[in-house]
Amino acid sequence: MDPFPTSTQLPVSAVLSESLSVVSLDESDLETMGRIEQVAHLYPWSERVFMDCIRSGYYLDGAMQADRLLGFAVIMPILNEWHVLNLCVDPVVHRRGVGRFLMDFVLDQAAKSDVASLWLEVRVGNTAARQLYDTLGFEQVGQRKGYYPDKQGREDALVLMRSLES
Ligand SMILES: CC(C)(COP(=O)(O)OP(=O)(O)OC[C@H]1O[C@@H](n2cnc3c(N)ncnc32)[C@H](O)[C@@H]1OP(=O)(O)O)[C@@H](O)C(=O)NCCC(=O)NCCS
What we know:
37% strand; alpha+beta; seven-stranded mixed β-sheet; single chain; binds coenzyme A
């Protein structure tokens, strides 16, 4: 059985962002989020972690094409700073604008909420994510040695920040 029937039925078009909408995800989306997470991340979160995020009141924004979840962002708000804990797109639709669409939405919501800055960590070797964040105006403000597990041992994290203050 195809474990990703909704993704594989997607029409093949270059950029998806014009057909996307954003919804708040909840416990009913845990299984789908978990499935995307499993195939997109080397060290995926468990459904339990997503559950904890929902119960903690973090923002879970899902990018939908019709009723299909294609990716999501998890944001932990701390006063006027928002921390992007996870950004994940179904590999079936990588490089078709879903990640940028989600981050544009998060930045827009943050600006409307008078948030001062967005923060996140990214693997040094995660070229795709680093490139995306770079184009969105994130800047490196730190580096955490050996922050992530990887196949060779540990990998550093870059700490990135995007100011929303003029
Ligand atoms: C990082 C990730 C969210 C990007 O999502 P995406 O929907 O594929 O990205 P988009 O199509 O919106 O691309 C936006 C920009 O990101 C950069 N980018 C995306 N994929 C890239 C790749 N494979 N190589 C280089 N740059 C890439 C480009 O700048 C791209 O803009 P462009 O296509 O106009 O050149 C996605 O690759 C993913 O889910 N990766 C696994 C999970 C992960 O690493 N999350 C980030 C944790 S910090």
